[in-house]
Write a structure and sequence with these properties.
The complex is a heterodimer of chains A (468) and B (269). By secondary structure, chain A is of the alpha/beta class. Chain A is 25% helix and 36% strand. Chain A contains eleven helices and 20 strands. In chain A, the strands form two sheets. In chain A, strands 1, 4, 5, 7, 9, 11, 13, 15, 17 and 19 form a ten-stranded mixed beta sheet that branches. Chain A has a ten-stranded mixed beta sheet with strand order 3-2-6-8-10-12-14-16-18-20, covered by helices on one side. The relative contact order of chain A is 0.09. Chain B has nine helices and twelve strands. A six-stranded mixed beta sheet of chain B has the order 6-9-10-3-11-12, with helices on both faces. Chain B has a four-stranded antiparallel beta sheet with strand order 2-1-4-5, covered by helices on one side. A two-stranded antiparallel sheet of chain B has the order 7-8. Classes of the chains: A alpha/beta (468), B alpha/beta (269).
Chain lengths: 468, 269
């Protein structure tokens, strides 16, 4: 390796970390060597190199610690106590399992959606696909995509999620064993939504599972995607999920992402969306499971008149920790962005929201709004909400607001005096709180299942009836 | 129907009601008048089941049941209705949805089948006409964006749909112009019947020109200091509350610390 300023940084950093951190990093490095040597035999050179760069970047940055601004509210004990162990890559892949096997049937499967199933990060089965020419969309595994569309893969995979990479995105790039790839042709209006499932079995302690997604929507296309993360493991495990979206000129993508992992899972996700002129990305992330959830969403409005609408709905109970970080980067004029994040917290759960809006000098006439509302159903739950606005252009509209509060006692009493029982009244008010998100169009991609889950979340058995 | 005996209520150690005795029979309309801070709204809310107050002494019987033991929703199902002085806005909950949930909860309590959407719509359209409510209000969230008059009409509309046996109207006249006052009063008068009692809580006489009470009680500093007929209300209007000072100690009528319920509730948290 050549000497470079970057490497000096790496050394400077390395001297600060504890021995234990070094051991963890060494473990990841060792596993990367094993994995990379296997993958290098079947993957193109550019991908091997990108993985290698990512691993270097990860080692250079080190594990996040309490001094890292964007992690300082997080409980990092699980992440920093030991390494998580990636699966060795499966090179033989199952394809077209006709019945899709049981893990994928439960939960979030929707009638009428085409489906790609990934098990422990590796392509498992495809269901309900038409012939490729039918609707202008191709979806499949990494291996097939590399074989059929080598140039497009080289142009996009790992290239969209490049700016300001976080450590765990880099780790995902270093290790992802497979990827869901979706390519939408120019001007294709795809009516049928696609559902990509990532399911982990989590059979071993501290296993590391990757989920990787690439969506390239060419100019003028329109497409809807449901992405679900589920798991059944009873052991502590880590899911590293990274999604890249490239939206060509005037394309439109609706995206609903549901994190419904097993309760001991650590879920670290990133979404990077790159928007060209006039493109529109509308995405909502729902967080329901996992003991630790962090999702970073980065949107680059890289062409004039691009439009981003981000939603987030997080439900947390027990001692769960939920962390959302957004960066909406307005680089060109007349962009529009909206961020609506809402959380409902029970018990002693904690949530963090960090919402960044960056309006660069050229991005005149930008219209950016951000809101974060939190409903605390327990006195032990807590929330940190941190808007971060960086505005360099002078002709912009930019607003933000954050609220943290309990259920409105007056409204609850009012409903009860009309004869509506406590549990139903409470449910009604919580649902009303979440209605701004539940009514977002992409929420329809999950059908009734989501409302049912919110109902379960508030089931009377664990209701807290304050003040009685 | 409703029998209140020696009711003492305080909030955070501060006495608000200091020995109320009141008996209300089916078919009667009672007016409870009094200066600000006298405890009128507290009495109304205690009957509906507000739990921010502590009842230290006394009893409330409703149709032979101990009301204090019942949750607010059980009281509602038993036939009690409170029209709020400040109807609460509930963003995100549709007016129709809310009212149907309320009516069906009550029907369920009494072992009746729930009303389906069509039957419910027929019922509420009929009731809306009485209160001259615009149908567009049905689709809006509960009380959100309603004018003051619309909110009060909506309260009486809910009452018309839920058909309570005891309706308590807390300052329903406040914030109403003359036309709205007439419409609301007509709505209430249409509800008068032999098996229903109505309690009108008000500061002013003017509502009682439209809804003529059988009994008038004057509440001051947590006690009923005088009871009489509709004439008593007119006398109060002309002479003012200070007229009653001769009957009682002067401090009884001095507006004490503000009644905690005469302020609008804060914004949703």
């Amino acid at each position: 390796m050549k000497e470079s300023p970057r490497q000096d940084d790496m050394r400077g950093r390395a001297s600060l970390v504890t021995a234990s951190d070094n051991e963890i990093l060494a473990t990841y490095r060792r596993h990367h060597h094993e994995t990379a040597s296997i993958l290098a035999k079947v993957e193109p050179l550019w991908l091997t190199q990108r993985r290698k760069q990512a691993m270097e970047s990860f080692l250079c940055r080190g594990l996040p610690g309490p001094r890292d601004e964007s992690w300082r509210q997080s409980d990092l004990r699980d992440l920093r106590s030991a390494a998580f162990i990636p699966h060795s890559p499966h090179l033989e892949r199952t394809t077209n399992d006709p019945d899709g096997s049981s893990p994928f049937k439960a939960g979030w499967a929707q009638n009428g959606h085409a489906r790609l199933n990934f098990l422990d990060g590796v392509f498992h089965s495809a269901l309900g696909f038409h012939a490729e020419s039918d609707d202008g969309v191709w979806a499949g595994s990494l291996a097939d995509a590399l074989r059929l569309y080598p140039q497009r893969m080289e142009a996009y995979l790992g290239k969209i999620a490049h700016a300001d990479p976080d450590a765990f995105l880099a780790l995902n790039t270093a290790f992802f064993a497979d990827a869901a790839v979706v390519l939408i042709e120019k001007n294709a209006r795809v009516d049928r939504p696609l559902h990509v499932t990532f399911h982990t079995t989590g059979s071993t302690h501290r296993s590391l599972d990757t989920a990787r997604l690439l969506v390239v929507a060419d100019a003028g296309s329109a497409f809807s995607l449901l992405e679900t993360h589920t798991g059944e493991g009873r052991e502590l495990g880590m899911s590293l999920a990274a999604a890249e979206f490239h939206l060509g000129e005037s394309s439109h993508v609706d995206h609903l992402r549901i994190q419904d992992e097993a309760q001991d899972q650590v879920h670290l996700g990133t979404i990077h969306a790159h928007l060209e002129t006039g493109a529109e990305y509308r995405g909502t992330a729902v967080s329901l499971g996992a003991t630790f959830h962090r999702l970073e969403t980065h949107a680059d409005l890289a062409g004039p008149g691009a439009n981003v609408s981000l939603g987030g709905l997080y439900l947390a109970d027990g001692s769960r920790f939920v962390d959302h970080l957004t960066t909406v980067d307005h680089g060109e004029p007349e962009g529009k962005s909206e961020q609506v994040y809402q959380g409902i917290l029970k018990d002693s759960s904690r949530a963090v929201f960090t919402g960044r809006i960056r309006v660069r000098q050229d991005a005149q006439k930008t219209d950016a709004v951000q809101s974060n509302a939190n409903l605390l159903l327990s006195p032990d739950a807590s929330v940190h909400s941190r808007p971060q606005l960086e505005i360099l252009a002078d002709d912009v509209k930019c607003t933000h607001g954050a609220t943290i509060g309990a259920l409105d006692d007056d409204a609850l009493f009012y409903a009860r005096t009309r004869g509506i029982p406590f549990d139903i009244a409470r449910m009604m008010l919580v649902r009303a709180f979440a209605s701004r998100l539940l009514e977002r169009p992409e929420m329809a991609l999950a059908g009734e299942s989501l409302e049912e889950r919110i109902g379960d979340f508030l089931s009377p058995k664990d209701r807290v009836k304050e003040g009685k | 129907m409703l029998e209140i005996k020696n009711l003492h209520v305080h909030i955070g150690g501060k006495p608000i009601l200091r020995g109320i005795d009141l008996a209300i029979h089916a078919g009667e309309v009672h007016a409870i008048m009094g200066p600000n801070g006298s405890g009128k709204s507290t009495l109304a809310q205690v009957i509906a089941g507000r739990d921010t107050f502590e009842i230290s002494e006394g009893s409330i019987q409703f149709k032979g049941k101990d009301l204090i033991e019942l949750e607010p929703e059980e009281r509602a199902a038993e036939g009690i209705f409170l029209a709020f002085q400040y109807p609460v806005e509930i963003p995100g909950v549709g007016n129709t949805y809310f009212l149907r949930a309320a009516l069906n909860a009550k029907r369920k309590y009494h072992g009746l089948d729930e009303l389906d959407a069509m039957d419910f719509l027929t019922l509420i359209r009929e009731k809306m006409k009485i209160l001259h409510l615009d149908e567009s209000l049905l689709q809006r969230p509960v009380n959100v964006g309603f004018s003051g008059g619309e909110k009060k009409r909506n309260e009486i509309f809910q009452m018309a749909v839920l058909e309570p046996s005891l309706a308590v109207l807390d300052e329903t006249d406040s914030g109403l112009d003359i036309d709205a006052l007439r419409i609301v009063s007509e709505g209430v008068n249409a509800m008068r019947s032999r098996d229903r009692a109505i309690v009108v809580v008000t500061h002013y006489q003017r509502l009682l020109d439209h809804i003529v009470p059988d009994h008038v009680h004057v509440l001051a500093n947590g006690r009923i200091i005088k009871s009489g007929t509709a004439d008593l209300a007119r006398e109060l209007e002309s002479k003012g509350y200070s007229w009653l000072e001769t009957d009682s100690s002067a401090d009884l009528l001095s507006p004490s610390d503000e009644d905690p319920l005469t302020k609008p509730s804060g914004a949703r948290g």
